[in-house]
């Protein structure tokens, strides 16, 4: 059976756990998406924007020097989502959703953002399609990602710092939901990952699946067959789901990499699937970080885009079904991978993507000769350079 089911469930996960006032909006969205996703004119308009505005297809680049540094026995390919317009995979989803919002007659767009990539991508799509845009961002993240705040403002968006709670992505989502409840008649909420109430996890997955479809075509052209292994980082999980989804029916090994932060035993991490438990967060049943009383715990990662205590419900289903393996690497491992890829390939990855590279580094000695690996490079690291310099003791005083 294709998942989700009609009520938006992936096995026991997913669904809609929202205030009654949001149900009409979600039903309206579900119906509009069901209709437009099958509409050839909508699909063609989005495909044209992805090609001519975003720059798709993105390259599948063979990282020979990285492979050599890992022992020379692997064929390593990087799916270069960092080369999209705005520098991350987020634009695939935001263009799809903002175009959908415009077709639905909505005049105002709201969004939340952690690392700033989703906020920039939403502000970009709203500017392109002529819609008002407001982005909620944890106050702590506005400091860590000050340049992305400025980029969003240049694009015409209003950025609202959120000072409640941990002042990170979780709190920004809470504030965006409050806004949506208040202004649901005129406002469209662009969720940035495969999280939230149905139909968002399905819709975001579908918009991001262009990553996996392109990868399948490109790797088959380059090596004559599907890859042996796919690796992607997982925060909410949109870039991973986009890469994995078109390969789910194949015998391709897949690994999702969460952020172990200071270590899984430290209590300071974002490894929801590796160290969390099922519960309800932001409108869906999924794995999350919570205490014995069900209170949501604060997440931590050096990568702001992974700093989220929940994960998409389809990832939870795929974990429990055993189809995908989920693991975690810590901040120091991600930093080493960040430096390694920069030095060996001249590519500075986003800290989020560096977690996926770090997992490859850990696994490489055990992989057989000739293994074909694709790592999803979900975003570029310009946004992280100042933060990394500070971590490495090279920041300005």
List its traits:
Rossmann fold; four-stranded parallel sheet; 397 residues; 2 domains; alpha/beta; six-stranded mixed sheet; 16 helices
Can you describe what's shown?
There is one protein chain. With 397 residues, the protein is α/β, with parallel strands linked by helices. The chain folds into 2 domains: 10-51 and 90-200, Rossmann fold, CATH 3.40.50.1100; 55-87 and 209-392, Rossmann fold (3-Layer(aba) Sandwich). The protein is 43% helix and 18% strand. The strands form 4 sheets. It has a 6-stranded mixed sheet with strand order 3-4-14-9-10-13, with helices on both faces. Strands 7-6-5-8 form a 4-stranded parallel sheet, sandwiched between helices. The longest helix is centred in the first third of the chain and has 15 residues, at 40-54. The mean pLDDT is 95.
Q: Identify the overall geometry.
A: globular
Main beta sheet strand tally, sense and closure: 6 strands, mixed
**Total number of strands:** 14
- What's the number of helices? 16
Family: Belongs to the TrpB family.
EC number: 4.2.1.20
Enzyme class: lyase
Function: The beta subunit is responsible for the synthesis of L-tryptophan from indole and L-serine.
Summarize the helices and strands and which ones pair or pack.
Layout (H helix, E strand, L loop, with lengths): L8 E2 L2 E2 L8 H14 L3 H15 L5 E3 L1 H6 L4 E7 L9 H14 L4 E6 L3 H13 L2 E7 H6 L1 H9 L3 E5 L6 H14 L4 E4 L9 H9 L1 H14 L5 E5 L4 H7 L8 E9 L10 H4 L1 E5 L2 E5 L24 H9 L3 E6 H15 L5 H13 L7 E7 L7 H7 L6
Parallel strand pairs: 4-14, 5-6, 5-8, 6-7, 9-10, 9-14, 10-13
Antiparallel strand pairs: 1-2, 3-4, 11-12
Helix pairs in contact: 2-4, 4-5, 4-9, 5-7, 9-11, 10-11, 14-15
